[in-house]
Specification:
This protein is mainly alpha-helical. The chain is built from three helices and no strands.
Length: 88
């Protein structure tokens, strides 16, 4: 059971860092057009797009959807762990 917990938490942390990295790249000019920016965009943007449908940017500039996306990711990770604990 500890292995399942470790894998889920590792994947959640990796994806959270990818989201944070992608957000930080938006602060640098032309950073999202780099290889890393495009790679992170392909992995993170579909997930963030779900939250951007419901949370528009505040003032046209401040995007709060990554914060909600990280909270939702943590919620899902702990939910998966609870389900595995229930059945195993």
């Amino acid at each position: 059971m500890d292995e399942v917990y470790s894998v889920i938490m590792l994947l959640q942390k990796i994806y959270t860092f990818m989201i944070i990295g992608y957000v930080l790249l938006s602060w640098l000019p032309n950073a999202r057009e780099s290889f890393i920016g495009v790679f992170l965009g392909k992995l993170v943007e579909p997930y963030l797009g779900i939250f951007r449908k419901f949370i528009p940017p505040i003032g046209g500039m401040l995007d709060l959807s990554p914060i909600l996306a990280v909270f939702a990711l943590q919620f899902v990770a702990y939910g998966l762990i609870a389900v595995f604990n229930f059945f195993i």
